[in-house]
Design brief:
This protein has 6 helices and 13 strands.
Length: 345
């Protein structure tokens, strides 16, 4: 299958793999290219579980510098959010020879209350499941994988941000990476009767309070990440989260209550991108099909030229996306859908 290649401009990158802290620079600046892996929304159901080892093997075979998982460890209706879901995920991630940075997805916690019905019994408290994930995935400043990256976690700031260990930042060469907990299912801001919501108003209000506080932390971390990128002279910023923010209501949803939590995030992205001299990419999952476009308008009538959105594969499509920074290419930053041959049937 012929692979599509789409590029966005970035400047030269550092390259050699080491597990080094944020801000540390490789002395061989611009000496070669490096590639990262991007994937999420998997494994889904029995077919996905059977295909998942081939995907992990394919990422290993391509010797990526590191990978990022953008959320959803299972299909929504594929069993309960049992402890074994998370321990199995960690075991799978640790099959990767290079670092793996994990981010949460809505099927991992926000939807564990029973959104998908009896097939997910016993139901769980979403906030308890998120707390459990934080303990398992975010206990240290190291990523997952057989080799690790050192990450800066928002929780290290303490105070009102002490809870948000899943929000991370790291630098690799000229790119600053920002991971955020932004979720499908309207970012966990529910409305009675919308999208299958059946919980009492007291529980709806409890979940809304979580979303409001987390969104404030997310946007604060986004602003801090861009300030950090400007301070170190980064040429690019990549933001990774789970939710499809439904840019410009591209999904044609009739009820705005299905997506009204997202415009605040899009506004923050637009503001920061307008003020940043380099390239900005948002990578997310949620929709399960590879997509790349420029969905934000600039100050005039055209698109915001230095902003690009990439959606990764998922569900039935057990494939991944690579991002390569090549200092010998004038376009430098190259995204490619990587089709795993064994999973292409």
């Amino acid at each position: 299958m012929k692979q599509m290649t789409i590029t966005i401009a970035l400047l030269a990158a550092t390259v050699a793999f080491t597990a080094r802290p944020e801000g540390a620079q490789d002395g061989r600046r611009g000496s070669a290219a490096y590639t990262i892996g991007l994937f999420g929304d998997m494994p889904y159901n029995a077919l996905g579980r059977s295909q998942y080892p081939a995907l992990l093997d394919d990422i290993n075979a391509n010797h990526v510098a590191f990978s990022v998982f953008d959320g959803d460890l299972k299909a929504g209706g594929d069993g309960p959010c049992a402890d074994s879901l998370y321990s199995t995920a960690i075991a799978n991630f640790n099959r990767l020879e290079r670092p793996l940075v994990w981010l949460p997805g809505d099927n991992d916690w926000t939807d564990c209350w029973g959104r998908y019905g009896p097939s997910t019994l016993p139901y769980s408290d979403p906030l308890e499941r998120l707390a459990h994930e934080r303990l398992l995935f975010d206990a240290t400043d190291q990523s997952l994988g057989q080799r690790t990256l050192t990450l800066t976690r928002q929780s290290s700031e303490g105070g009102q941000y002490a809870l948000y260990s899943e929000n991370v930042r790291w630098q690799y060469g000229p790119v600053v990476y920002i991971g955020l907990n932004v979720q499908g299912s309207n970012d966990n801001y529910p409305y009675a009767g919308v999208d299958g919501e059946t919980r009492p108003q007291t529980e709806i209000d409890r979940q809304r309070a979580e979303e409001v506080a987390r969104k404030a932390a997310d946007i604060h971390w986004l602003h801090e990440g861009f300030a950090y990128a400007a301070g170190v002279g980064a040429r690019g910023v990549m933001i990774i989260w789970q939710a499809d923010p439904n840019f410009n209501n591209e999904q044609h949803l009739a009820d705005s209550r299905s997506w009204d939590a997202f415009p605040d995030y899009v506004s923050a992205l637009r503001s920061e991108t307008l003020g940043f001299a380099g390239q900005v990419a948002l990578v997310h999952g949620d929709g399960h099909y590879f997509k790349m476009d420029k969905p934000i308008n600039g100050p005039g009538t055209g698109v915001l030229a230095n902003f690009t959105r990439v959606e990764t594969f998922g569900a039935r499509n057990t494939h991944w996306v690579s991002a390569t920074i090549d200092p010998n290419d004038p376009n430098v930053f190259v995204f490619e859908p990587r089709i795993v041959a064994a999973n292409a049937q």
